[in-house]
Amino acid sequence: MANRTSAAQRPNGSTQGKICQFKLVLLGESAVGKSSLVLRFVKGQFHEYQESTIGAAFLTQTVCLDDTTVKFEIWDTAGQERYHSLAPMYYRGAQAAIVVYDITNQDTFGRAKTWVKELQRQASPNIVIALAGNKQDLANKRMVEYEEAQAHADENGLLFMETSAKTAMNVNDIFLAIAKKLPKNEQTTGPGGSGQGRRLVEGDSGAKTAGNCCK
Amino acid sequence: MATSMYSKVDEYGFERPESFDYNLYGNFLSQYIGVLAKRAKRWGDLKHGDRYKKTTTLKRFVRKGIPSSEREAVWMAISGAETMQRRSNLQYNSLKKYMENKTITEMIKIDIPRTFPENIYFTNDNILPQQLFNILATFAHHNNEVGYCQGLNYIAGLLLLVTKSEESSFWLLKALIEEILPKYYIRSMSGLLIDLEVLDEFVKKNEPAIHRHIKGVGMPWAVASTKWFICLYAEVLPTETVLRIWDCIFYEGSKVIFRVALTLIKIHRQQILEAKDLGEMVDCFRKMGQNFNVVNCHQFMIEVFKTPSSFPNRYLEKVREKHSSILSDK
């Protein structure tokens, strides 16, 4: 069973270096595997039938990158079209987004492109966007070609990986890739606080409770 | 010690949470069973012929809990579903034949195995999932304004577990969506957006310190409360508590949702105020259903009707109207 890799462990209190906190939102059509990706990343688990997310869920997970601890505040949103009106409150101020589609369903790829467009127009200008082609374990039922998605990602400056929440393939990797791309130097940002992660000092309440939703 | 006395699965097929306190539950149940037995006897006298009529006595009785054997009949009567069914020139079985929109049926099909995947009645046979599909697909084709909204699967699923009747569940779902609840489920979800604002206003008025703290850590109401409105606390609170809430929603309408919300917040005042950041706050709201004061549905419902003591529909409508016009101006 592929569980969490060493790269995705929580800080153990002896962590040196800086701690950065970033808001990350997951978007994408219903049933593409947004909650499953989060469940795999945060708890190392997978449920064949994941309950549909009503509204949104909030979880946290930390990854260590060299001397930096990156704490993700993850907003997992409902995928059904009509819940769209609630989405801006989750991606507002987000420094990162994972837009998910299902490689066995062409419509979900179309919807992913729409999400990317919306983020580019409405979200923070420096947002790091990753495109995830999930359900890679069902590659024999593939309807979206890898090259097609890669080309779209290249054109739009997105990170891109095919993932499988079921086998854990590329799940930690995509979060790590995002963590690497996020700016970790503290800078003052304009109103709204978009752009940079808040830097937390060791012993800060926020740092101590990292991963408190992971029980 | 006595943990093995009670099944890990409740009467309706739901697994109890790991943290469930069987000793406390045993104490509560030994009292509650007495209450239920006493009430069941008195319920017998309330029927007019084979029907229940809405009277102040019935309202008082409903607030104290409908015996599970009578739930289907009473819900059908007090929700207006029975009248709707009687007056309608539509038959459920003929409505069921029209399911030609594949986009809708596919969407629902995906959600069926995702509805209560841990409930033994849904996982152990094929009948219930098929019935759930029929109810949702029939309704979605019947009501174009709503179609299928995620969340309705949980409501229809629980209706089915309680009534064990596909047809009654359909009419109860229709009564809820078309008569009892605001426009939560339509494509714009306008009713939900309005009620989230209404909730914000009520909390601000009733619990200003809590309101300030929740705003301070930056938790939007939509995160904690979307499910409260959309699923009517199904999937949020323990089943018996949810059913006691539904008893009252069917009789008194959607204001009960706010009474419950304010009671949950009041009961968890300390925990909310102690939540230091967004993660802790979301966690605190997520775990409210595990609190024994919520599991003890009888005591909980007594609190619900004290919070606040008086809650006229007219007042709720006024606040809703205000937020409706604010939102449409935006």
Task: Indicate the topology.
The complex is a heterodimer of chains A (215) and B (330).
Chain A: E1 18-28, H1 34-43, E2 56-65, E3 68-77, H2 88-91, E4 96-102, H3 106-122, E5 128-134, H4 146-156, E6 159-162, H5 171-181, E7 198-200, H6 205-208
Parallel strand pairs in A: 1-3, 1-4, 4-5, 5-6
Antiparallel strand pairs in A: 1-7, 2-3
Chain B: H1 22-43, H2 56-63, H3 71-78, H4 81-87, H5 92-95, H6 102-111, H7 120-123, H8 127-142, H9 152-163, H10 166-180, H11 190-206, H12 208-217, H13 221-230, H14 239-252, H15 255-267, H16 269-274, H17 278-286, H18 292-295, H19 297-304, H20 313-329
Helix pairs in contact in B: 4-10, 6-8, 8-9, 8-10, 9-10, 11-12, 11-13, 11-15, 11-20, 14-15, 14-19, 15-19
SSE succession of chain A = EHEEHEHEHEHEH
| Total beta strands of chain B | 0
SSE run of chain B: HHHHHHHHHHHHHHHHHHHH
Low-pLDDT residue spans of chain B: none
The Cα radius of gyration of chain B reads: 20 Å
Number of helices of chain A: 6
End-to-end gap of chain B: 59 Å
Structural class of chain A: alpha/beta
CATH class value of the largest domain in chain B: Mainly Alpha
The backbone outline of chain B, from C-alpha atoms, is globular
The largest β sheet of chain A comes out as: 7 strands, mixed
Beta-strand percentage of chain A? Answer: 15-25%
Largest sheet of chain B: none
**Percent of residues of chain B in beta strands?**
under 5%
CATH architecture of the largest domain in chain B: Orthogonal Bundle
Q: Care to count the β-strands of chain A?
A: 7
- Helicity range of chain A: 25-40%
